[in-house]
Amino acid sequence: MVLNCTEGTMSDYSYFFGIDLTKNHFSLHAVDQSGKVLLHKSVTRSKLLTTIANIPPMRIGVEACGGAHYWARTLTHEL
Q1: Domain of life of the organism in this record (predicted)?
Q2: Domains along the chain with CATH numbers
Q3: Whole-angstrom Cα distance, residue 18 to residue 20?
Q4: Is 40's pLDDT higher than 80?
């Protein structure tokens, strides 16, 4: 599955998305520019790509860990 992201600065995005990586479950959190929570849920490893494929192009923040490098190569949203 290939996900696309447009070029831009942080101010070009209408909301921000963060992922907390663990072994089998991922915590997802998205807010708009005013800080309103748009998404807060946990998904399994097998559903992460499907979940992200259903959101518009955006910058995604991923915690710094060994698994972050794998996800940075797998996701084409801006990390």
Answers
A1: Bacteria
A2: 10-74 (3.30.420)
A3: 7
A4: yes
Residue 8 pLDDT greater than 50, yes or no? no
- The residue type of 46 is S
Please, how many CA atoms are within 13 Å of residue 67, restricted to the half-sphere of its CB?
Answer: 11
Top pLDDT among 24 and 12 is at 24
Q: Is the dihedral of CA 61, 38, 33, 55 positive or negative?
A: positive
d(CA 32, CA 39): 10
70, exposed or middle or buried, with CB in 10 Å at 0-12, 13-18, 19+? exposed
pTM comes to 0.61
User: How many whole angstroms separate alpha carbon 17 and alpha carbon 62?
Assistant: 9
